[in-house]
């Protein structure tokens, strides 16, 4: 079933072109049959090519039989046409073409080189040699007429067939194109009638403006169809003995047709690059429009706010998501500056980040912003610097992370609480022994590098067991809390650390503190507890008192923090032995032992 319509189409095209334009050279001025067959091949898969080529061969044979050609001429001519079609179609590759693909530069040049030049020239050379050998005809006229006629047929009818096969002509009649294209088509027909219906002036140059107009409005399909109309009108009036080609000072009709072929060949060659350029530009415009639509969809439907600013942070564009996130219309937001909606406490930090963008090009930061209704929210922004030509600015994407930030803050508080459980004493709220040991190691390392003194206080509650036994555990706990509050009040610097060392014993780390200053701090704490006048019947003083040991030194290589702690412990026991309720100071002096390790004097 596929072969029957192709056979009829090829037979009709071959017969019409042969019968209508045969002259003394027995060749056609424009050969449409091969252009028709080539158009079908280019728009069909390779698996169907044998059937299509068979239909083309059958059409040529049937046409030659109808015109009464000799059997030998029928065979040679039909096979030659078949070879020409195959040579023109083969380089186009294995993919099916539509009109847009044919207008692409790579495919177009293949069509031009193989379909319009090489295949007709090669077949023309063979037929001219055949005519010379069998009939004694001149080689060049036959070769010229055959090659040019077949090239014109390929150039004019193949794009039309491709357009019809993929329904590209429907696009020519869309409302926005119909009237301009109709005007161009009317101009082409009108000018063609004027040029070829009169025999007074050679007005061929008038054909170019309306064809260019059609090329601009109708593209590849409209232009090839218009050129085909012009060729038909030219052939009709030339056969009638009228038109620009009749004005030539040439007596032979065959020579007129050769000039006509040259003219239309040059016309097609001049129009084709224009059509390809227009098609390429249209593809670029379509691609650009597609990108614009994609960007519009991204901007309009993104849940993130997209902001464009200049180098001075003046707002140039904001996406519609600003309504949902910040409660402003895009027009309202653009009337403000970028920093206007930043929380006052974060303005300085955000401004610093914007200044840093010039160096880092891309930064992420989190800050608080104010919505139009005054509500405070947390936002995260990605800020990127760009430079397009002379324009420099920033692209900012902003999203509401209030829920995430609240969860993060809750997690931070939980971690802090967990850390306090790990590092704090549950009863007194002071640092625990673990925290004391970690802080002591850190302060020792820093003091060793910095060369500054470090002091330790060890504090013991006098006769605490008797206090606990007499007043009970609850009063004992209250006693420890009272001492802890006095220690915390006496340690005022941020680097100092008061800790519960164990049981009723406490310890204090005093960085950057000479031993004399540490002794004054210790004495102030001891007196503070005594002046509280907490009753203690088991103490010879009648009130709650403290014994304090103070030790200090400037760390040196070979020594250790534990040596200072041992010195403070010795000072504490000295205070206990000498009657308690007192402060004893021991300054550490470093010396080198036999093994080179520092020892305490």
Primary descriptors:
Arp2/3 complex 21 kDa subunit ARPC3; 12 strands; single chain; 14% strand; five-stranded antiparallel sheet
Distance between the termini: 117 Å
Give unreliable regions as ranges.
19-27, 592-601
CATH architectural category of the largest domain = 2-Layer Sandwich
Text of the CATH class of the largest domain: Alpha Beta
> C-alpha Rg, in Å?
51 Å
Residues in β-strands, percent: 5-15%
What percentage of residues falls in helices of 4 or more residues?
A: 55-70%
Overall 3D shape:
rod-shaped
Work out the number of β strands: 12
Number of self-contained structural domains: 4
Main beta-sheet strand count, sense and barrel state: 5 strands, antiparallel
CATH topology of the largest domain: Alpha-Beta Plaits
- The CATH homologous superfamily of the largest domain: Reverse transcriptase/Diguanylate cyclase domain
Number of helices: 19
What structural category do the secondary elements indicate?
alpha+beta
Q: Spatial order of the strands in the main sheet?
A: 2-1-5-4-3
> Average pLDDT, to the nearest integer?
81
